[in-house]
Amino acid sequence: MDNDPIGTAGREMKRRQRLGTDMYVCLFCGYIDPVALIRVTEEWLRQQGVPSSLFEDHHAVGEKHDPHTTILLCRNCHANATEGLLRAGVSMRPEPDPVDRVAMMLDGWAVFHEDEATAERRMAELLRSRSRENRYE
């Protein structure tokens, strides 16, 4: 167990630097702990000796369709979002036909926006419930 507050603060600072922004929060669940939100590059993982089978980065419409569009999600929401893409039939394999690839990307965006809408409704209800609690205190 690490009881070194300086070491803890140093690790926390490094995690925040890796995220590359002052604003870091899982878009779907609101989780803010940098431990689960660390944005790690493939190169960094290789340098650490992590096998490529463990690389993880959420690509909202599928990496093979658009490798540049990524969304910051916690690890749990990332797993759920990827499973949602697969359940919706969004293939993770490269699609050589440009029309079919764009159609696949649009399907991926639809799944993402449905997940996002669900998360926003959940957050709105949380705000409403807290507002009601404050009114009756």
Shape: flat
Number of strands: 0
Question: Mean pLDDT across all residues, rounded?
Answer: 75
Structural class call reads: mainly alpha
Residue windows where pLDDT falls under 50 for at least 5 positions: none
Indicate how many domains the architecture comprises.
1
Helix content range: 55-70%
Please report the distance between the alpha carbons of the first and last residues. Answer: 40 Å
Most strands sheet: none
What share of residues are in beta strands? under 5%
Kindly list the characteristics that best describe this protein:
137 residues; mainly alpha; 5 helices
Describe the model:
With 137 residues, this protein is an all-alpha fold. It has one domain (5-135). 55% of the residues lie in helices and 0% in strands. It has helices at residues 5-19, 34-37, 42-47, 75-87, 98-135. The radius of gyration is 18 Å and the shape is flat.
Secondary structure elements and their pairing?
Blueprint (H helix, E strand, L loop, with lengths): L4 H15 L14 H4 L4 H6 L27 H13 L10 H38 L2
Describe, in short, the structure shown.
The chain is mainly α and 137 residues long. Helices cover 55% and strands 0% of the residues. It has one domain.
